[in-house]
Give the backbone structure.
Amino acid sequence: MTATSLPRSRQARLSARFRPLFEEIAAGAAERDRTQALPHAQIAALAAAGFGAVRVPEADGGAGATLPELFGLLTELAAADPSIAQALRGHFAFVEDRLVAAPGPERDAWLARFVAGDLVGNAWTEVGDGALGEVGTKVSPDGSGGFVVNGTKYYSTGSIFADWIDTYAERTDTGARVIAAVPARQPGVRLEDDWDGFGQRTTGTGTTVFHDAAVDEAHLIDFDTRFKYQAAFYQAVLLAVLAGTARAAERDFAAELAARKRTFSQGAAALAREDPQLLQVIGEVSAAAFAGAATVARVAEALQGAYESALRLHAGEVDEEEDAAANDAAELASAQGQVALTPLALAAVTHAFDALAASATSTGKDLDRHWRNARTAGNHNPWVFKARLVGDLAVNGRTWPTIWAVGSAPGTVAGESGASEPGAPVAGASEAGPRLDTAAQAVAGLPA
């Protein structure tokens, strides 16, 4: 069998399947960024093409992608438009949670919804003076057998495009912390596109207001059953965003250099595209993009290990200690990847401007969006905290939080924001603290 006749991997087949859509998305990314036009049509096209169901098993109608395959696709999508990749983060986290849920009719119903094209957004974060451990959004019985949700969430990434909203809340009847899967298109839900960040402008990361929003009891999911590698998963999507952004910078700056007609008297070649110094700059950006994709792939392998461990735990093939080790490995890989990739991607995108001249700063070219996008994604869950914890583990063997949380610490001045950066892991944000093992210790400031 010749190399050209070898069967393509599922990753290659999936990439070929979605690449035409990715190319269409890339063609309009700069204009959407300039005008802050939300990509409703582009995300709808991805859903219609089955992108939201790539992780669903083939037997259930999906593509059966592994986590390394999913994150390979997300990196490609992020190279086309990092805002769209991030906007789908809450969806893929909810899909992951349903994949490791106990088998039964409810799990089957969710998988069918994903295959039908339903998307899930995210509404976790609350801002203000909320203390660690508090959640202001409540789920209450409506007196007729159903439930209603009331509260306000911020940084609701992806919800404005979604059919369902993954909402972190507290039940008033039992006090339990739950994930309420709230139908998005109903009078009791108001979605606003009021995210004012200078990058990732079109993620739909706005405010969600619930006012007696209806939710079925069957769609109230005990938070303590949430998939254990969620924090690592959420961070891995941001890593894909960073890796894709570096790849997009390589593509766009290389194209600009290739088309450049003028050069400088002190240049090393008659044509800019032949100048060895400028070619070196693009080569270094390309290498950073390669390293970024490799980092994402390595983290995704660790996540796949945690996913497979969850299935084996359900089957009684591993014990709790072995499963905890798999989840710890995923969390460590995610943190190490963040510490390595965040400064690398930012430096690469900044360095890319060295290959061009002052015209590269033209707002018409919108090349600055790559830096703005990388800087914004890199500010989520500050990596400096993760670096300290990785070092503490290496030197002292100390365990670290399995639930990340944010909120006003005891004794802080009233009026300080309890918000975390948009895009923090769904299990919490970036404040280090004692190991938190139960939903009762979790916090309302859990952005996505």
